[in-house]
Amino acid sequence: MRGIEQTMQGADEFPGRGTVARPLRGRARAANKKVESRVGLNVVTTEARPNHKSSRGTDALTAPPNATIGSGAPLVAATVPSLVDEFGPSAWRRTELERRDFYHRTREFPRDVSQWRNGVVALIAAAPLGRFPNIPAGATSEAIRAYVDDGISKLRQINEILVALYGDPPSSQRHDENLWGEKHARRILTRIGVFAETGVVERGLDRDDLDGTTSLIPPNLRFAFSSGLKIHGTNVCTERNPKCVDCDLRSFCSDFRDRWATQTEQSDAPVTVDLFCGAGGLTEGFSRAGFRASLVADYDEMSLRTFRFNHPQVRDANVLLCDVRELTAERLRKTLAGRPLDVLVGAPPCQGFSMAGNRSKRTAKTPGVGVRLDERNYLFESFVKLAIELKPRLVLMENVPGMETACVQGRSFTDMATSALEAGGFVTARWKLDAAAFGVPQERTRLFVVASRSKTLPAKPFGEYQTLHHGDFDPDALPQVTFDDATFDLPPIAAGEGLAVRRWSPKADSDRRWRRFLGKFSLVTSPRILFNHTVRYHNERDLELYSLLAPGEDSVHILERGRRDLMRYRSEVFDDKYLRLRGDRPCKTIVSHLAKDGNGYVHPRQDRSISFREAARVQSFHDAYVFCGSPTDQWIQLGNAVPPVFGEAIARSFRDYLSRNK
User: Fold this and answer.
1) FRET pair for 181, CA 20 to 30 Å: which of 148, 225, 454, 572?
2) How far, CA to CA in Å, does 210 sit from each of 53, 180, 217, 449, 635?
3) Same domain flag for 272 and 222
């Protein structure tokens, strides 16, 4: 959340929070296809609710007699002491399978927690209608469980941040599971809206109802929650003058998100709509340049969770989970509420054009195989269609250079896109730009199709840094930003280590490398918590191979040293499968294949592949930009993202153009 100090005004006040529409998550959506229709992430119930106490099926689950919201009685009180003894005061540590997850649905439940979870599902199923507004009438236990699991994942993540900040509560501390009895915990949980997944809004509930909702918090988290929230409420989330700028929980906070969204909507910043937004790299770049995102859409649910978490200024209702081919101009105009659209941006999927998926010698000889039959290659048509119907002042479409060379019946996909835009009244241009020329520590060349409804176009941005791969080397340009410039201050970490959340203290900003990249682009924005600094597991054979590579060396050097026994891939197919990066050069292109292995991205000095946070730095995401989901989810999101600093350079050119042509 770069620039939040300048962006947020009136952070000392907490006006009343309005009800915000909440998304229906994946498994719940699948389990309730018959009772709901969805527009993006918003659920609209299409069947009238019967006028009786409860219409939710329990699927043979029975709510315990004492499991009533409002009674103040814990749902499974008898299990709490044993859980504290078993798990310790901070409780429920991540398993090895979960250590790299962030805000991801829990993979493994302790036995007692699993029993509590079943009781909560039964409780919600038996509750009167209206008590849990987001859960549709007739919802099955599986659908309700999906809501509950999303809430559990949020609560676990909040607890991990609190423990990282303030440590484990002392085991001698008295255990009090009634969180609402402690004023700081009550204030913070109310502001966050901890039960928003189910539609419960704590603000306005009476004390008995608040006491009863404690049952919705996993019993093995209540002890740590009570201790951590008390410290946080005393020092950060105070009753008056809360320090929202310094709050590491703010992305979870409904009050903060609502106030920031309201303020953003009242600004006169130029407006964007981002289709195929993914994790939000392009929107982040445009935000850095002073634009406001009005609506975004993507087909991947976990990418949108990452987007929502990092862009609280965009309301949940305007973050659409949908197939862009089904999105209408009418839906977009409704969101714009009569305001003209300044820029339509989008990055249609590039896998069908990318040579990164054709890295072997065999497939490199026949690039474009299957291009004509890959449906992803035609998604740009929906983007162009919406551009013609919406008539934004400017259009930006990002893709890989392969879009220019991949052809169908003698025409490239880029030709098809520009021809359609020109037929729709736009003038167009093509920009082929290297991210390294704009200060990104990565060799990443991308193609941008730019279109304008006027007779003129924005100026092609000029890169201030040297680039070595396009025949336009400028000896007077700034030296390239290197891998070491981007990552030098991150703590060392071994293979198979790291947690998604850890406490850290960044180095002082006196280092020259800090000023060249991290300081210049304001990327170290979380002074107390380091997110996503995790490394995958490597087997002993790969670790031995890594140790034999000098910076810049690849698989060929292993063969030359007579260690073919360490190679797991055929050398006649891959000759660069293993590569140790050079710290004094920009990194090679970060790709989504890193979800499978990191053999081509060995750290310059440490015998391991690069960590996720190192790769996010290379992609120019600030440190408070957190990627949600499993490690596979995170790597795919990052590999597909437009580097924000790269996007910002283009956005500044667009902003200058719009200012001159009002």
Assistant:
1) 148
2) 21, 6, 12, 53, 39
3) no
State whether 363 and 504 are in the same domain. no
Contact, 193 vs 90, CB < 8 A? Answer: no
3-state helix vs strand vs coil in the chain, percent to 5: 40, 10, 50
H or E element that contains 343: strand 343-346
Within this chain, do residues 326 and 356 fall inside the same structural domain, yes or no? Answer: yes
**pLDDT tens, 90-105?**
568 888 899 999 999 9
Helix (H) / strand (E) element for 501: namely: strand 501-503
Q: Which two tokens stand for residue 11?
A: 């952070």
Q: Are residues 242 and 264 in the same domain?
A: no
Please state at what angle helix 141-166 crosses helix 111-126, rounded to 10 degrees.
130
How many Cβ atoms are within 10 Å of 21's Cβ, its own excluded?
Answer: 16
pTM summary value: 0.85
- The answer on 132 and 91 residing in a single domain is yes
Length of the chain (residues): 662
CA separation for the pair 488, 606 (Å, rounded):
12
Q: Parallel, antiparallel, or unpaired for β 411-412 and 407-408?
A: antiparallel
- DSSP collapsed to 3 states, 396-449: EEEECCHHHHCEECCEEHHHHHHHHHHHCCCEEEEEEEEHHHHCCCECCEEEEE
Residue 137 lies in domain:
57-252
Domain for residue 122, yes or no?
yes
CA atoms within 13 A on the CB side of 457: 15
436: in domain:
yes
Q: What is the pLDDT of residues 561-583, one digit of tens each?
A: 878 777 776 555 555 689 999 99
> In the chain, which residues have pLDDT < 50?
1-89, 357-367, 369
| pLDDT per residue as tens digits for the range 611-643 | 999 999 999 999 999 999 999 999 999 999 999
In-domain check, residue 20: no
Task: Compute CA 403 distance to the chain's CA centroid, rounded to the nearest angstrom.
Answer: 26
Same domain, 132 and 214: yes
Supply the pLDDT for residue 94: 85
- From 252, 287, 314, the end of a domain falls on 252
The count of structural domains within the chain is 3
Give the CATH number, domain containing residue 139.
1.10.1670.10
Same domain as 307, residue 238: no
